[in-house]
Amino acid sequence: MMVTVMEFLEGFTLLDHDLLGTDIVNNTVAIELGKFMGKTHAATHSSKLAKDKVEEFAKLFENRAMRDIQLEFVFTKCYNEATDDQKNGLIVDEAFMKEIEELKAAYNGANIDNLSLCHGDLHPGSVMVNKDEVRVIDPEFTVYGPPGLDVGSLLSGYVLAAVHQAYSGNKDAVSSIIKDVENIWYSYKNEMENGGISSELLKKIEIETIGFTVAEVCRTALEFAGGRKWLQFDDTDVKLEARKAALSIVSSCMSGRHKGGMALLLSEISKL
């Protein structure tokens, strides 16, 4: 027997639309999203569960069909099919692709010591907000996978929004978005620490988070993210400059994340 409980989200709007708008998004939204991810990931992290429970979660939330879609469209297709014009400003060499393959393996569950229950597709289009209220929707990509996947997917939207707002001339929005990136990470980190996740693991998750962040920024900048409206401008020159700015962040952070971590990402966004 099954009961479905539904809530009509009257007055709520999609976060990705709000991040592209002229109004500043309430900073509480970022804090609450960080808390949500931190509580969920800490409670289900493989370092906190018995071996048999980890194996149960890995099987129960393998979600192979949807996972294979992500493996193809997020981590493979854009690098194989993007033109030289699309990749202008990005060097897709052996070292870069090694980073992508590591992220791909992590997403596929290779690192058994660092897995949590993940939404699996937690970009700002899967978040609805009403002032400081937050609702997370569309969990069909849920997996028992690397926690940095969720944090990185969410942050990618904020990074892309910062680029978009910078090239739309909205400096106040850019500053607010940069603050939100900090809010998400530090509220997330605080909940993970409260949940007993070690500082060593948190550092790994931080580096992993930056990787997933810029991988999604890269895919979107290369125009392989479906109908998402990030970096779309009527002026062709502005569009090209915005894309180059996004890919510059990707280039700096994909390998540099291992030493620079979150501080590097924040530094690169701040250049906008």
How many β strands by DSSP?
5
Instruction: Give the end-to-end Cα distance, rounded to a whole number of Å.
Output: 53 Å
- Using the 3D structure, state the CATH architecture: Alpha-Beta Complex
Question: What share of the residues does DSSP label as strand, in percent?
Answer: 5-15%
Query: Quick check: average pLDDT?
Result: 96
The unreliable regions are: none
Strand order of the largest sheet: 1-3-4
Give the overall shape, derived from the CA principal axes: globular
Quick one: CATH class?
Alpha Beta
What name goes with the CATH superfamily? Aminoglycoside phosphotransferase (APH), C-terminal lobe
Total domains: 1
Helical content band = 55-70%
What characterizes the major β-sheet?
Answer: 3 strands, antiparallel
SSE topology string: EHHHHHHEEEEHHHH
Task: Please work out how many helical segments DSSP would assign.
Answer: 10
Radius of gyration: 18 Å
Derived from helix and strand composition plus strand pairing, the structural class reads: mainly alpha
CATH topology: Aminoglycoside 3'-phosphotransferase, Chain: A, domain 2
